[in-house]
Amino acid sequence: MTTPDSTMNPQHTKYCVCTICDIGCQFRAVVQDDRVVRILPHESPALARNICFKGTAAPQIHNHPDRLRVPLKRVGARGSDQWEEISYEQAMDEIAERLSTIVTEHGPESFAVSTSGWNTQTTHGFDRRFMNLLGSPNWISGVSLCAGNTAAVNRLTYGWFPFPDLLNTNCIVLFGHNPRKHSWTPLFNMIEAARDRGATVIVLDPRVSEQAEKADLHLQLRAGTDAAMCLGWLKVILDEGLHDQRFIDDWCVGFDELRARVDEYPLERVEEITGVDRELIAQAARIYANADGAVIPWTPVTDQQISSTSAIRLHSILRAVTGNLDVVGGEMLNGVHPGWRTEADLQLHDVIAPEQRAKQLGYDKHPVYTYRTAEMLRPHMERVWGRRWMDQVMGCHMANPTEVFRAMADGDPYPIRAFFTLGNNTLLSYPNQHQVHRALMNQELIVAHEIFMTPTAMLADYVLPGDVFTERAHIADTWGWGNRLALSEQVVSPPEQASSTFRFWTDLARRMGFAEHFPWDDLEQVLDHRLEPSGRTFEQFASTVLMEQAPPDYRKYRRTGFATPSGKVELRSSILDELGFDPLPYHREGPATSDAFPYRVFTGVREDPFFQTGQRNIGVLRRRSPSPKFFVHPDDASRDGLVDGHWARLETEQGHVVAKVSVRSEMRPGHVRVPHGWWYPETRGSIELAGAFLSSDAVLCSDADEFLDHEQGIPHFKGFPGRLVPCDAPAGMSELTLGG
Length: 740
What we know:
Belongs to the prokaryotic molybdopterin-containing oxidoreductase family. It contains 27 helices and 27 strands. It is of the alpha/beta class. Helix 10 packs across helix 14. The protein is globular, with a radius of gyration of 25 Å.
């Protein structure tokens, strides 16, 4: 039976690409009275299972009563969380005026931006476009620690970031990666489908994770030793002749030098470093090398270690020497969709002066994902991919975050005085949280563009409400990684005073003299421009396409070569050599444990109900995981007096945080796992910055030079020393009272 109201305003559905996490699943949003009321799976059997409980919570997130809807201007001391409501126009006028003054006094490099493509879905490259026109190279993002840096490092070996052909592969190797039904859901479903086809799954993880429990082989390595493990695999593969010698002869350079380096890692040494039996190491290497099509998917673990550059390079080298590059069931060098302009095409990287690019923080010290390396790759990218600048997963032209926060806090090598953060809870998203806090407190202007009041937003001068993915049209393109286009329709109206990132950057640019470079008046015009190479408008695309992908094209390198200086796969990297680094991969030991700090702490692990620092205020999700937890082995808990469900304090030389203990037999003894991104929105007004320092893993990890990967400046999140001691619950905490 229908009510009169429902008859007059019936429900209808449209297609959206979800950005609550970084996967980008396409599903259907049910709308009534300009309000999202429900999320449904896709009708396609191939896509219907790609939905998790974060995605189904979109109505509770997008319609949340605490969502920001009006621009706010700080009226109290920074961080006091005192505001007055102002109009969007006033906010933009004042922001433009204050930013102009800072740039005039300190130079354009004094302006830095941190953003997240996952939360904002896309900026259409307008953030970098604005910064390049202004002359600031200091753009950072969480992708510097997660996928974006992996994309940049992969390009050193073969000029692209490959995408695994999971639909056809016969062997899947997961380095610490643990896709589950409600986390990395499409990847989980593809792995399950591969298992059903008979594919072998090898997991390398200190934990007995959900993937490890089902794996054909589990190598329970010591945290932070991925590079050594890969060198051990290569030792087996090369010694036993399991490599593809013809491909190496025709398409690789540096094989003899690589072999000499690999010989430095006999299996006895690798066993000692990793803690894994040498016979098991050899067995895994043989299975991978002998598979007819094998993949090593990107992992959020290998890209966060003290040997990150080497470990990522070793993954790329394993793909190449076993003949798994750009073949069926291997790792695909897809390129971009031929009918689409990428974000990099709109970013105007040629506009910023070379001397300004050279001021990018990290350019000299940790250059791998900065402009410095991108400049070296330009002619080779253009030769193979037809683009001088290709910003895969937003990670190929970044500043180094640690160097940016040092400049913000201490003015070294020059001061940064204005900081914008869009869809990025900066305070909890990078290592050495106390330094990040000091850096933010030292700014003359902070602007936050958000949908909720985060601890970072509480430190801002202006907080502007953003829109969400159901409130804007988009075409998702996997951030330049693959060549798939997926439709995301606008299904409801945004709040009247909310702005998209397109609107924010366009309005700021026009106020600061760049109007001619921002000619588009609405988002659909931008999408028309991006689709122009295909001869379609967005309206035409939306009326005919839900998802499309260019047909596979294998072994393209036979026509074009690889986008490297040699035109071949560089097992010995000429770019790393020219930059002054070791051109061959190596294992570098992380900080050692001691009697005082006996645990190996690995952080950055996400929990199913949350993505990064988000969703702690969404009751339907938070009730699935009400409190942060430290995961420890029963033997460790018994020795240190730790009781399951009771509070403990985790201490490192950098800082300390608290959480409840979770005793898990699947943990490797001597290790403690710490979930990422914890704060307590329900304590806003009673605990400073809503408990941002109580349980955040970002407090624990040092970014001192000796703890950083040399080439990228990535901190060692996986296996740094710590100790656990029982403690009382933190003062001011009460039972969870979140609704929704």
